Amino acid sequence: MSERGAPTAVAAIAIAIALALPAPIAAAQALDCPQKPPQITIEIVSPKPRIDRSRTREKLTRESAERPPGDVHTLGLYSALWSMTASREVASLVESGGRENRGCAWLDKVAIRVEARPRLIYLARELQPRTCRYAAVLAHERKHVAVDDAVLAEAAGALSARLADALADLRTPAPVRLTGLDELRRRFIDESESRINAMWQAITDERNRRQRDIDSPEEYARVEAECRR
């Protein structure tokens, strides 16, 4: 918290791709394309934030994402780096020796890993522990921490089902000629990347909106009044 301030937040995205080799089936066997949604796994890595009192209020003011105007200095700052990696696996089936040389492809597995680290609560060196101002600033920064915890918990609870629905159509509903199979596999990769990124962007937008709501004039007034009683 500053006597105006804001959390620092950076979101990053990385995508990894795995293309499973086509598995042949016997020519006499009817080729049925799997119609199931991809298997989704979600991993959230979010350690508890550490308190750092090494910076002066002048340094925190310079580092603040939203610098306060005039001579107002930042007394506290919450910083957390968010990142998301997504690995995807496209599977295939092809006929072995069939006259039409047909095959199926589908997005089979998606593994999402979300990390929020390092997480730091910076408190200005000038703040003295066990004082009202120290406690008030720390309590304000912990509200920013609670927002991140809530958004991450919601993502962990809902993202798997939402992704399975959003990616369920990335498959061949019926066998296709092998000459077009590679193109379809590439399209599944490109389209899944776009949809995963859009969903991740929505999560980070919601996070940023909630974080901004904490730094309201009413909140700053409340903190100021807390130590004037």
Describe the protein.
- It is a single chain.
- The chain is α/β, with parallel strands linked by helices and 229 residues long.
- It has one domain.
- Helix content is 38%, strand content 31%.
- α2 packs antiparallel against α3 and α2 packs antiparallel against α4.
- The two termini are 20 Å apart.
Low-confidence region ranges = 2-22, 24-28, 67-71
> What form results from the Cα inertia axes?
rod-shaped
Helix content: 25-40%
Integer average pLDDT: 84
Helix and strand string, N-terminal first?
EEEEHEEHEHH
Oligomer: single chain
Please report the distance between the alpha carbons of the first and last residues: 20 Å
Broad structural category: alpha/beta
Give the strand tally: 7
Radius of gyration: 25 Å
How many distinct helices?
A: 4
Key attributes of the depicted protein:
229 residues, alpha/beta, 7 strands
Element layout with pairings:
Layout: E1 8-19, E2 23-26, E3 39-45, E4 50-52, H1 57-63, E5 76-96, E6 102-123, H2 132-167, E7 176-177, H3 181-214, H4 217-226
Parallel strand pairs: 1-5, 2-5, 3-6, 4-6
Antiparallel strand pairs: 5-6, 6-7
Helix pairs in contact: 2-3, 2-4
Give a short synopsis of this structure.
This protein is α/β, with parallel strands linked by helices and about 230 residues long. It has helices spanning about 55-65, 130-165, 180-215, 215-225, and strands at about 10-20, 25, 40-45, 50, 75-95, 100-125, 175.
